[in-house]
Amino acid sequence: MSGVGHLLRYIAEPGLLSSGPVRIAALVGAVVAITSGAVGVFTVTRGQSFAGHSLADVATTGGSGAFLIGLNQFWGFLVFGVGAAAFMEIIGVQRRRGRDVATGVILGAALGAAALFLYLGSETTSTTGASFTILFGSIFVIASSTVPVLVASGLIALIVVVALSRVLLLSSLSPDIAAARGVPVRLVGAVYLIALAVSVSLSAVAIGAVLSTALLIGPAATALRVARGPGRAMATSAVIGVIATWLGIVLAYDSYYWPPRGHGWPVSFFIVAFVFVFYLLTYLRRPSRPGRGQVAQTAADPAGQAGPGERACSAAS
Amino acid sequence: MTENASRAGSGELLRLDGIDVRLSGREILRDVGFAIRPGEFTGLIGPNGAGKTTILRVILGLQAPSSGTVILAGEPRGKSGRSRAGSLVGYVPQKLLIEPDMPLRVRDVVALGIDGNRLGIPFPSRARRELVTSTLRAVGADGYADARVGELSGGEQQRVLIAHALISQPKLLLLDEPLANLDIRSAQGIVAVLAKLAREQQIAVLISAHDMNPLAPVMDRIVYVAAGRAAVGSSEEVLRTDVLSKLYGQHVDVLRVHGRVVIVAGEDGADPASPGALTGQPDPVFGSGAA
Ligand SMILES: Nc1ncnc2c1ncn2[C@@H]1O[C@H](COP(=O)(O)OP(=O)(O)O)[C@@H](O)[C@H]1O
Ligand SMILES: [Mg+2]
After folding, report:
1. Do A308 and B89 touch (CB under 8 A)?
2. Residue B183's pLDDT is what?
3. What are the sequence ranges of the domains in chain A?
4. What is the ipTM of this complex?
5. Each residue of A201-213: pLDDT tens digit?
């Protein structure tokens, strides 16, 4: 940590790490990035990024509604996100397709309600910053009293997903194999969807409801292009998310001294930009030895020629 | 092989009796029954849509029959009791193609066969690693243990999935059309691996296929399925014009061409002289269980 701090002193404004909001942002940002990173790996492999986006849309309604009645927006994100997850499970969104249209209409209505809440909210409180906070994040204005709740929710979602990781992988490989081995596939999917909703809610607090899935999908998609095993993919995804978040915080803090003077650039912009850049960087990597499978195949082929029933597979070893 | 099988107790590992299955009001299977003994290599043969996958799903407990019984290792399968199949039965589903972004190496997929149904993360150990490696060796897939499974060819993926099914040391291996879409040499390689497992480890193999010819040299018995009904016996007993005509409910001819068995429809079916009949295409008869 001190090494990092040393490095930061060169690239960032002095006072960065002594600022209370920055410390909170760094802590909450890390928790959010780690949770989203691990959860996101399964979102991508299960082909559920659409579900993630849907949860984020509904969470926006919850966050703006909470703001309207004077509650902490996290509770709004969380209650609506988890509620939407339960609803999606009931109508069977997990089984993909077919429900697209109905889901699209519902999401449109949810965002419409969010627009109304934000409008009413800004009318009564005359704080124009509030809608911006809900839509695009508030990592520098997190009240220290909500930090324990955010950290605890993140840890719970993380633990749940790590505990379910093998079962989730087996279900992604083949729901039939999983079911035949006694895995309650549908229940596992529902629990995962709730963990996803918690993760999206946290991400909405950090980088905003509109951008929350960027931190969920981006690092995971990047990690899945470079890491092989599932454990490594989750760890890589989490690390990418944390780096993007911390770099974003540093630059956002710094940007108070950039033009236009006196207006910092939004931290969410930097975080999402870094996530995007990391993803692009994976395309610069040379693809991993494409011939490998074919080499192995030729090694096994004498087996086929030896004729069925003969000492075929010993030839491959 | 059969001598070895009879040594293992009463002999029957699996017995299906009078299995009927109805799905959304349609009769899919009618009075299907057969038994399998340890180490036996059984082909579940029939055209597309005949009901092969449904039979395998009934055995696995994924599909409840509307009547009939499944007895696995001496115990009847309850209507809801699917957990028993867990370690006794290994399963390779049909048309399972793993996408390239699946973050699983070959050894991860095989390790999921040990305890992929458990919570938590596995404790990595040498024994575990060696079990995975030796299982991969048994199916001739140890050459690509660290490759990403989604980047392998179809035949290589099949070997990996067989290793996944095998690692929990099942007594019965169910494979649903593992040879579909494979070139002849890959298919022969897989068949050889399976025959060896049946012979040397006394694992009963029940393998479904719409083309029986790649399996012909190794099958002990055939369960021939057509239009939801099954005929059971040795290939001489089952692959006969009268038996299959009765099964299909219309006249079919069983032809032996260049050492291959080809089944063609009589008057109102496909043209027996169609090129498919001679070039080794899958049974050119009924496209999809139309009979
Ligand atoms: N869930 C289902 N509902 C209704 N019919 C089904 C269902 N699944 C399969 N079928 C029908 O059952 C028949 C047998 O299917 P299947 O067992 O998959 O055949 P096979 O594996 O031999 O190709 C087919 O006609 C198929 O259309
Ligand atoms: Mg089938």
Report:
1. no
2. 85
3. 35-316
4. 0.83
5. 999 888 888 888 8
For the domain A35-316, what is the CATH code? 1.10.3470.10
Cα Rg for chain B, rounded, in angstroms?
A: 19
**Segments in B202-282 forming alpha helices (H):** 235-238, 241-248, 275-278
Superfamily of domain B5-279: P-loop containing nucleotide triphosphate hydrolases (3.40.50.300)
pTM of the model: 0.82
Of A162, A182, A296, the CB nearest to B117: A182
CB contact at 8 A, A219 and A278: yes
Q: Report CA dihedral (B224, B229, B231, B235) to the nearest 10 degrees.
A: -10
B180 lines ligand 1 (CB under 6 A): no
**Rounded to an integer, what distance in angstroms lies between the CA atom of residue A209 and that of residue A60?**
5
Each residue's pLDDT tens digit, B229-239 = 988 888 888 88
List Cβ neighbours of B205 (8 Å cut-off, separation of 6 or more).
B40, B41, B42, B172, B173, B175, B194, B195, B197, B198
Convert the pLDDT of each residue in A101-156 to its tens digit: 667 777 888 888 888 888 887 766 655 567 777 777 778 888 888 899 999 999 99
- Partner residue opposite A292 with nearest CB, options B144, B184, B188: B144
B57 Cβ closer than 6 Å to some ligand 1 atom: no
